[in-house]
Amino acid sequence: MDATLFFQTLVNGLQLGVVFVLIALGLTLVFSIMHIINFAHGEFYMLGGYALFYFFAQFGVNYFVAIVISMLLVGLIAVLIERGVFRPLRDFPLRALVASLALVMLLQGAGLLGFGPEDRGVPAVVTGTLALGGTIFAKERLMVMGIAGLLVVLLYLFLHRMKLGWAMRAVAQEKEAAALQGISVNRTSAIAFGLGCALAAGAGALAAPMFYIHPFMGSMPVMKAFVVIILGGLGSIPGAVAGGLILGLVESFGTTFAGGVVSSMLSFLILILVLIIRPTGLFGHE
Amino acid sequence: MLLSLKDVKVHYGRVEALKGVSLEAEEGAIVGLLGANGAGKSTVLRAISGLKALTTGEIWFRGERIDGASPQSIVSKGIALVPEGRKLFPFMTVRENLRLGAYLRKDRSQINKDLKEIMEHFPILEERKGQQAGRLSGGEQQMLSIGRALMSKPTLLLMDEPSLGLSPLMVTEIANIIVDINKGGVSIVLVEQNARLALSLAHKGYVLETGNVVLEGDAQELIDNEHVKKAYLGG
After folding, report:
1. A212 close to A121: Cβ distance less than 8 angstroms
2. Which residue of A18, A284, B80, B155 could cross-link A148, Cys pair, CB 3.0 to 4.6 Å?
């Protein structure tokens, strides 16, 4: 394999990986605070993609502003869904899981009715390439990586430097003790759910200019995000980052050498192997 | 009266865990709650701290009715619970655990002073301040759990089985800490299976059996009571 192909495959993998990381971070955040496996997470990714399509491609809002708007909007919708659906089911994880499956169908149906069945395209935001040591990189991919990386850093700082972030980690680690310190578990759960879904929306918005947008676009990424968080360790932030990047690289190199179908099968083979050999994942505890 | 429970009933599903418990704690006192496993001791503390809703009855704290209030609002009124099994935040450092005890307080400079004071009081916590709480020994975890509760500056400290699972040496140390805290002006309700320990520290005691208060009195009275001797002090 020549160096150029190698580096290009590497960058493609990292760029795919950061999108996985964002989706998986939201999923793992929601899981660790609310103990809900939210199958509808991919639908928030879809909503983020559509929000970007409308605000950026239709209304002509600046791309970066449109990303922020789509995250805020989807985050808000998510907070309402937490309130109406998941809060009443707080003590019933199995019912919450089934409800999240129902939400998949509801949100996909709503997408179909509201946005239409056709594929939508979002025009490229930046064009052109950057040549580094003989390898050519699309600037757009580098930008996506930059923004996703920034979001990960911001999430980390939020969780470790802000009071609300401390509250989230406390609720994740010991819910009752968190309540005893004066932390509102209800409020923290709602914000965590909103934040997690906003991250999925951010991933959808970042992916929008690279892929087509349609009401079912969330199905595959959420499955990949499950692979990521199980590979990295359920509830682990560093695990989601490492797992996402690893999966992105596996898919990118797999696609280059064996084609898309084999590479996708490989991801889910990894999932099963991790579950059997090391169910706690790379960074998980217990 | 600092704290009073009036005819408190609590259910877990259909099971009645407290069948009409009334008890009082005076300002400045250590009150011991004795009883066997499942007698309802922990449930009393959970009810006071707002973790468990009452079926009927009333809880009053400093002249204010507090049953039905959320755990957050009860902490803010000055009641802190050291829960059974410590319930620390295992993947946070010792310092972060302590800092979270002051979650509702806004007086940042005073919080830092209190943090220092607690570290001075528990030198082992100072030594381990950067370590994850889950990696501490049982005794250290208990100290941290107590320290965390103190960071909220409580008027009333509820302690659920602080001696459980600790070595005899550590039990003595925790006993000294409890006396110290009380001397510092904090009233204490102490739940213990170790009746001897509880009665040696408490001014007043209550004996719970299957959700009822069956005996109450000064600690010395209870120590001399035949039933208490037989059932809780090993003859």
Report:
1. yes
2. A18
- What total number of domains does chain B contain? 1
φ/ψ of B137, rounded to 5, equals -75, 165
> Can you give the residue ranges of every domain in chain A?
3-277
- A-chain residues within 8 Å CB-CB of B78? none
Of B51, B70, B101, the CB nearest to A181: B101
CA distance B89 to chain A (A): 6
From the list B50, B117, B60, B126, the residue with the least C-alpha distance to B94 is B126
Reduced to 3 states, what is the DSSP secondary structure of residue B11? Answer: strand
Q: What is the DSSP string of A16-71?
A: HHHHHHHHHHHHHHHHHHH----TTHHHHHHHHHHHHIIIIIIT---HHHHHHHHH
**Minimal CA–CA distance to B122: which of B67, B65, B205, B180?**
B180
Residues A224 and A27: their CA atoms lie apart, in Å, by 11
pLDDT, average across residues A71-88: 96
Neighbour tally for A175: CB within 10 Å: 18
CATH of residue B217:
3.40.50.300
The dotted CATH code for A3-277 is: 1.10.3470
> Which residues have C-beta within 8 Å of that of residue A165, sequence separation ≥ 6?
A157, A158, A159
- Please state, in angstroms and rounded to a whole number, the distance separating the CA atoms of residues A94 and A104: 16
* Confidence check: pLDDT of A110 > 70: yes
Going by C-alpha positions, the residue among B217, B226, B235 that lies closest to residue B34 is: B217
Question: Is A62 near chain B, with CB under 8 Å?
Answer: no
